[in-house]
Amino acid sequence: MPLQSSDTVAWFDVWAAGEAINAICIRTQREGIAPRLGESVLDLACGTGLVTIPAKQHVGLAGKVTGIDIISGMLDVARQKTSDMGLDITYVEHDITDLNELQLGKFDVITCASALLLLLLQEPLRAIEHWTSLLAPNGRLLVDVMIERNVLAPVILTKVRPNVGRELGWNGGWVESEDWLRQLFIDAGLVVEEVYNSEVYETRDYNIEDRPQLFEKAVANPMFRVFGEPAVRDKAKEIFVKEFRGRAGKDGVVRKEVRFYMGIARKDNKE
């Protein structure tokens, strides 16, 4: 998958800062949602520790925090940050869709705050069912998912993909509304606490004239580089430009909104 490339590590921190991810991933600072003193937290797709480290600051010395990511370079950065801050966090390099062999035990809070992660999973329900099995009774699962208007280039490249024979590694077709995320929780056997649209953190307007430059910027991203391969670049760009035009308003502008579906669900305390 494109996310395994080494230069993704540097790209991720730049992207995260640019998209205000540090401020809004799972709203970990929000009262009633943040991990509490002494709790155990599992941060899935922890990346460079953007949520993992604040979680440890919330749970204190008595709490336990584990971060898991499949990209070793991300974990190297997270470990260095953690060491520099004098914190004690366990980081594990592993596929987050199947954690059974790690024998992690149960957690009070599980976060998946990459914003991209659920869209990249081919079977999001199966993954959430698996994560639910790692929750302690009354444990909380906190996730966020980008809305379509926040992932403009990937959504357009979804339309490009079947015409150029390249894989996107992106499974965003199921994310159509808050109700889709709510139903995903229900189907996984969780009690839904809250699913909602976040506030709009930023807006960006793109003019029709920007289309070629946006394509070039997209294919420079490690996630979408396959569309910039010489054998498909020209055709992919042609389709991208056409799809972009179809999304523009009468003023020739496409507006991107940095906004997320936020979800909080709980495992029944009877289990």
Task: Note down, in words, how this protein is organized.
Mean pLDDT is 81; it is low at 1-7 and 17-26. A 7-stranded mixed β-sheet has the order 3-2-1-4-5-9-6, sandwiched between helices. It is globular and about 55 Å long. It has helices at 8-18, 21-24, 52-59, 72-84, 117-120, 124-132, 152-164, 178-187, 211-220, 233-247; strands at 40-44, 64-69, 90-93, 107-112, 135-146, 191-197, 202-207, 253-258, 260-266. It starts with 7 loop residues before the first helix and ends in a 5-residue tail after the last strand. The protein is an alpha/beta fold and 271 residues long.
Keywords:
globular; 10 helices; alpha/beta; 271 residues; seven-stranded mixed beta sheet; disordered N terminus
Regions with little confidence, pLDDT below 50 for 5+ residues: 1-7, 17-26
> What sort of overall outline do the alpha carbons produce when their principal axes are compared?
globular
Q: Please, how many helices? A: 10
Note the beta-strand portion.
15-25%
Structural class: alpha/beta
Mean pLDDT reading: 81
| First and last CA, distance | 36 Å
Please summarize what this structure is:
With 271 residues, this protein is α/β, with parallel strands linked by helices.
Question: What's the structural blueprint in terms of helices and strands?
Answer:
Layout: H1 8-18, H2 21-24, E1 40-44, H3 52-59, E2 64-69, H4 72-84, E3 90-93, E4 107-112, H5 117-120, H6 124-132, E5 135-146, H7 152-164, H8 178-187, E6 191-197, E7 202-207, H9 211-220, H10 233-247, E8 253-258, E9 260-266
Parallel strand pairs: 1-2, 1-4, 2-3, 4-5
Antiparallel strand pairs: 5-9, 6-9, 7-8
Helix pairs in contact: 7-10, 9-10
